[in-house]
Amino acid sequence: MKDDHPSIIGRFQAGFRNSPRGFIFFSLLPTLILVLAFTYYPFLRGIVMAFQNYQLFDLTNVRFIGLDNFKNIFNDPKFKHAAVNSAYWVFISLILQFTIGLTVALMLSKRFRGRGIFQGFVFYSWALSGFLIGLIWKWMFNSQIGVINDLLLRTGIIQERIGFLSDPNWAMTSVIIANVWYGIAFFAIMLLAALQSVPSELYEAGSMDGASGARKLFNITMPYIMPTVITTTLLRAIWIFNDPSIIYGLTNGGPAGSTHILSSLMLDKIMYGGDYGAASAIGIVMIGILLLYTIFYLSVTRSAKMGDF
Amino acid sequence: MKRHLMKGSKVVFLALYLIFMVFPLYWIVITSLKPQKEIFSFPLKYWPSELTFENYINIIKISKFHVYIANSLLISLSAALIVCCIAVLSAYVLARYKFRSHRQVMLGFFLTQMLPGFVALAPLYLLMSRLDLINTRYSLILMYTVGLIPFSTILLKGFFERIPSSLEEAAMIDGCSRLSALIRVIMPVMMNGIAATFIFAFVQNWNELFMAVLFIDNESLKTLPVAMNSFVMKFDVDWGAMSAGTVLSVIPTIALFAIAQRFIVEGLTQGAVKG
């Protein structure tokens, strides 16, 4: 009886069991719907906005204006300044985060007592938000009662207080220091994991051939962890480029726009200016830069070496 | 001799690095425990003359800090939970089956991690107002869930790939359906991975600022980051209260990360290391 007339649910379950197609489809469905509707749709909508006059405070006047938004931002000295800052911000932050992160990883790759606790104390910056890190450093960089000025004065390195955040000559350096502090942990953690996967036989063979420590580093270790190095630097550069939260918390682009990068300038146009068209235009320029960068980076480092992270 | 020198420089470097990393946290904690007058008096005190909780009491008095904490908890927990349920399914399918659009789906996930997400921020605001979700907790639960699905899927996929598929095949021969094999046999084995994903998602949600600022301005619905953001604008000079607020905001995430760090790193580095 039961076998002759299987219930609808039973038939559904049987179908599920026999064809992975149905299972695949229904398992991916919620993911695909949500990501398409709330990530890709708004994203594409944002791209269209770049070609529209779209002001939050003038929504009756939304219309296509061709490339006017792009002309406006390219004529804006703030935009050019932010573009130069972005390059500076990504390049310096990345180099410092990577070299310090790699050094830390190399030093931690051999087991020693207390290593686990040490890692807990130095890697926690990962768990903090960029905004709060910005606030913490804002307090430390304070030109009147900031602890960094106090330490530098006490040790006699400087004679007068420095306006780390109020002096345009210093502000960019200050935000980069905070960003480096934030990002070392990422590289140290990733590279440490890669280092620990290097087979010890390779080192033993190297020792037998009489290779020195430095030669082992460049001839054995580095080639072996190269895929991780390429993937992490590529991804990290993109994240640093895209993330305005430290700058938002620390200077909010100030003084006088001198620490804006492209992403913080775009955020500023959305949150305070309500100029969605101009913000989107900046976003499109950013996408273009990211595309060029990724293609360039992968062709220089030869994508074949990249891990499938 | 050379060996000693190497070891010595290593110890010095690691010690300096430790100080560099720990000092900012130390300083914000110490500031939050100083009596008001000592925060702004010279010379700066590196250890307060007395430890006091007056800044913490103060911040709860001048703002609804307990409400913000409750909102942050509710939103972060719900979104992290939903993300895990949805991402487990998609990660499992992507780990176990090669189907026609497999590559495209993975590429679609990776792209969301690389594109500048703020391009979508303004349209999202308009979309949320059209759905009548502005000034509701649902807007944030929804958007945090969506935002974390791709990354959580990639993370969980790595964990699934380490579990031999013979495990659920055996269960299916014994008459389990695919879904119940996944729930009854596979999930218990990868509790570490799921916990790591959950904690990662929670921390991200807990920290998110910009969508929350844009979608919420009702005092009783604010999350911690939104509250801190309005604090900066209102009490820019009250560093006693600000540091107390910062410390309260970072304690849960630091604690969680300390617990889950090992698993998250395992999951993250899987693909990258394998090359």
Q: What do you see in this structure?
A:
The complex is a heterodimer of chains A (309) and B (275). By secondary structure, chain A is mainly α. Chain A has helices at 8-18, 20-49, 68-74, 77-108, 115-122, 130-141, 147-154, 168-195, 200-208, 213-242, 245-250, 262-273, 276-301; strands at 52-53, 63-64. Chain A has a two-stranded antiparallel sheet. Chain B is an all-alpha fold. Chain B has one domain (64-274): MetI-like (MetI-like fold), CATH 1.10.3720.10. Chain B is built from 13 helices and no strands. The longest helix of chain B is centred in the last third of the chain and has 36 residues, at 239-274. At the A-B interface, helix 1, helix 2, helix 4, helix 5 and helix 6 of A face helix 1, helix 4, helix 5, helix 6 and helix 7 of B. Chain B: Keywords: Cell membrane, Membrane, Sugar transport, Transmembrane, Transmembrane helix, Transport.
Overview features:
heterodimer, A: 309 residues, mainly alpha, MetI-like fold, 2 domains, two-stranded antiparallel ribbon, 13 helices, 2 strands, B: 275 residues, 0% strand, disordered C terminus
Secondary-structure blueprint of this entry?
The complex is a heterodimer of chains A (309) and B (275).
Chain A: H1 8-18, H2 20-49, E1 52-53, E2 63-64, H3 68-74, H4 77-108, H5 115-122, H6 130-141, H7 147-154, H8 168-195, H9 200-208, H10 213-242, H11 245-250, H12 262-273, H13 276-301
Chain B: H1 2-32, H2 36-39, H3 54-62, H4 65-96, H5 102-114, H6 121-130, H7 137-161, H8 166-173, H9 178-189, H10 191-207, H11 210-215, H12 224-234, H13 239-274
